[in-house]
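Researcher: Here's the sequence for the chain we discussed earlier.
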Amino acid sequence: MKNTTIILKKQIKDTINNKAILIQFLLFPIMSAIMTFSIQTEGMPYDYFIKMFACMYIGMAPIVIASGIISEEKESGALRMLMYSNVKAKEYIAGIALYIVGGCFLGCVCMAVMASYSMTQMIVFLGVSLIGMLISVMIGSIIGICASSQMKAASWSIPVMIIFSFIPMIASFNETIRHIGFFFYTQQISEMIASLDPASFQSVNMLLLIVYFILSLALFIRVYKTHLIRF
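Model: Thanks. This is the structure I predict for it:
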């Protein structure tokens, strides 16, 4: 736990100097605020942009940040030095995950406050967002671990994050895309965030989220054991 805390503190400190990571944490909450407070048309729900950008935030930021951090530290040799310093791979990954999920969770809290959600709505919004973040972090970590360089990680993560983050937005305007997006975890998150009422959730929504979580965790563990264990 001590090493995990050290990794967490290191990443927080590095954020000050790494503007690209900082932007990922701030971009969608800021865009939500700008669009919500500047654009309101008749018939549009007050939290329309908040829900839309929240889903994109969950499906994009954790993937980009996780893949970028891990691939960069692999390429620079910093990860190898950490392993030589008795930091276990699982402690390193835990620190990275806490850092990313914590940062994105704060962003989602800001978005929920902007939307003036009730306590129940906020709990549902943040709970569903947290599950999505964990899945996205595992996907981003898999990319970062497998990529041989930061450039390759970026080239792999971009199409993945575009698919997961934009499908739910397009699905709201296209029924065919909605049927395709049904099999993506971000689409399930989008539908659950749209109502924010646990009573209206369909069992298939939760089932698919659980399946995605288990599959991403299983794949992550396999990749972790075959790659990072070498360090």
